[in-house]
Amino acid sequence: MLEIRSARKTFYKGQPDEKVALDDLSLTLQTGEFGVVIGSNGAGKSTMLNAVSGAMPLDRGQILINGDDVTNTPVHKRAMRIARVFQDPMLGTAASMTVAENMLLAELRSKSRTFARGLNAKRLADYKERLSILGLGLENRLDTRVELLSGGQRQSLSLIMAVGGSPDLLLLDEHTAALDPRTADLVMGATVRAVDALKLTTLMVTHNMQHAVDYGHRVIMLDAGKVKLQIGGEEKADVTVAKLIDHFSVKSDAMLLGA
Ligand SMILES: Nc1ncnc2c1ncn2[C@@H]1O[C@H](COP(=O)(O)OP(=O)(O)OP(=O)(O)O)[C@@H](O)[C@H]1O
């Protein structure tokens, strides 16, 4: 379970270009829930993820994971409980190493240093099983160097590597944004299979309104550093892209045009 309580973050405080990125934002995500965060540019989505991961300290407010207050826990310690996948498919994997070697790297990162290293039959069987969750055939490509994989396969591998340590929370930071539409759909399919199979509590930021409609239990719209709208339960089943777009603030566009 994730709780964000009255999170406040101001950039350039006291200066003419002061910007309130998080305006006493509160949000709760239940254990096993898949929340999809949308909102216009500058709404505060990345700042919120950075605050949750610990990459950015809050001015005030609290972050709780499964009831533990982690507000003052440094990012590297929080990383043991939080997995994060970024936009760039090249970031999460080592290109010149094989799929199996990448899985081993991820495993060693999430376990103690004294843990036996080396690829062995038990490990390879475990990697095969976990990669098969993605439904992309990566379990048959354990000896393939990652640089030979497609962007979608590589991003899906990043995802399964990130969640190997059974994190309390998975943060997906526009993880399909750099992919072409077909590949983005493929990665979303793999994501949902992994989230369901591993019962992950997930917060995904996306600009893809169709993905917000099609996936997740709840859509959370941010605007000006606050939660503007939440659509979950049965209501989520009826939501459409057009309805979501209707809720977007027009103020920022008007301001940009000098209106
Ligand atoms: N490191 C920073 N320094 C100064 N201002 C920042 C910083 N990070 C974010 N901001 C400002 O805070 C506000 C919220 O930005 P944020 O990146 O969280 O929005 P976002 O919803 O993720 O936008 P986008 O969809 O464009 O990624 C914006 O006005 C942005 O310019």
Folded structure, characterized:
- With 259 residues, the protein is of the alpha/beta class.
- It has one domain: 3-Layer(aba) Sandwich (Rossmann fold).
- 35% of the residues lie in helices and 23% in strands.
- It has ten helices and ten strands.
- The protein has helices at 45-53, 75-78, 99-110, 121-132, 151-162, 181-197, 209-214, 233-238, 241-247, 251-256; strands at 2-11, 19-29, 34-38, 60-65, 68-69, 82-85, 169-173, 202-205, 218-223, 226-232.
- It has a six-stranded mixed beta sheet, sandwiched between helices.
- A hairpin with a 2-residue loop joins strand 9 (218-223) and strand 10 (226-232).
- Helix 3 packs parallel to helix 5.
- It is globular.
Helical content class: 25-40%
Q: Averaged pLDDT, please?
A: 91
Number of helices in the DSSP assignment:
10
CATH architecture: 3-Layer(aba) Sandwich
Short note summarizing the structure:
The protein is α/β, with parallel strands linked by helices. Helices cover 35% and strands 23% of the residues. It has one domain: P-loop containing nucleotide triphosphate hydrolases (Rossmann fold).
Give the topology, please:
Elements: E1 2-11, E2 19-29, E3 34-38, H1 45-53, E4 60-65, E5 68-69, H2 75-78, E6 82-85, H3 99-110, H4 121-132, H5 151-162, E7 169-173, H6 181-197, E8 202-205, H7 209-214, E9 218-223, E10 226-232, H8 233-238, H9 241-247, H10 251-256
Parallel strand pairs: 3-8, 3-9, 6-7, 7-8
Antiparallel strand pairs: 1-2, 1-4, 4-5, 9-10
Helix pairs in contact: 3-5, 5-6
Q: Any key phrases for this structure?
A:
alpha/beta; disordered C terminus; four-stranded antiparallel sheet; Rossmann fold; 259 residues; six-stranded mixed sheet; binds adenosine-5'-triphosphate; 10 helices
